[in-house]
Amino acid sequence: MATPASALDVFDKDGVRLSVDDAVATVTLTNPAKRNAQSPALWRALAEAGRSLPGSVRVVVLRGEGKSFSAGLDRQAFTPEGFDGEPSFIDLARGSDQELDAVIAEYQEAFTWWRRNDIVSIAAVQGHAIGAGFQLALACDLRVVAQDVQFAMRETGLGLVPDLTGTHPLVGLVGYARALEICATGRFVGAEEAERVGLANLAVPADELDSAVRDLAGALLAAPRDAVVETKALLRGAAGRSYEEQRLAERAAQARRLRDLAGLSD
Predict the structure, then answer these.
(1) Calpha distance 109→115 (Å, rounded)
(2) What does the alpha-carbon distance between residue 115 and residue 155 come to, in Å, rounded to a whole number?
(3) pTM given for the model
């Protein structure tokens, strides 16, 4: 999705640009020459984007410049030297369990804020979304994909596991059996299958991706913000509640909305 001309850049560094246009923020991966390959510096910039959102933002669009959304982790991470100023993966493996856990937890912060209740996030995905790229798309609430999209989870084939928060949403979207098959085989999932199994909310021709995301963002903004926030919180919590617990949560949320509409909220 092209950034609107009226948008103001909040920052642009380490392969990430954050722009804000009133209630819509756009986070763009800006290294198309490397197919938006990811690094620790990029992950820190993504986490900073989440912390930098103005309170006016209701919808966040995530996109990648060029032909691919993100081809995954930059393979430089697997070299002995790693990235400049960063510990190599070999160095990390030599650390204590506590040190390794802390580093991975820091990396995961780039993938966690997209599901905050106060925003709705949309990944606009074209071309390759592999490994960390797939997990970044899964971090968002919604996914609109171009017909050339190719999702793949390649970590298992490298002797690793998906560890950037992608396993929970993947199982929630497609179920355990299909998630296991996708991860263990590392195969590609194209647009038609992604839409059919629930990975994508919508699949469109590549030249219609921007307009489809723009239309979806507009539809999300049409409803009152507080109602969307409460509804998102209800839906996010539903999987962890019993039917009766969800009924109770619905009643409590509706009571808050009615009091707010009546001007009786605290």
Answers:
(1) 12
(2) 23
(3) 0.94
Instruction: For 125-181, write each residue's pLDDT tens digit.
Output: 999 999 999 999 999 999 999 999 999 999 999 999 999 999 999 999 999 999 999
Query: Residue 207: how many CB atoms within 10 A of its CB?
Result: 9
Contact at 8 Å (CB) between 89 and 78?
yes
Quick one: angle between helices 132-139 and 167-174, nearest 10? 70
- Mean pLDDT for the chain overall: 95
Is-contact 114 50, C-beta < 8 A?
yes
Which residues have CB under 8 Å from 195's CB, separation 6+?
A: 145, 201, 202, 203
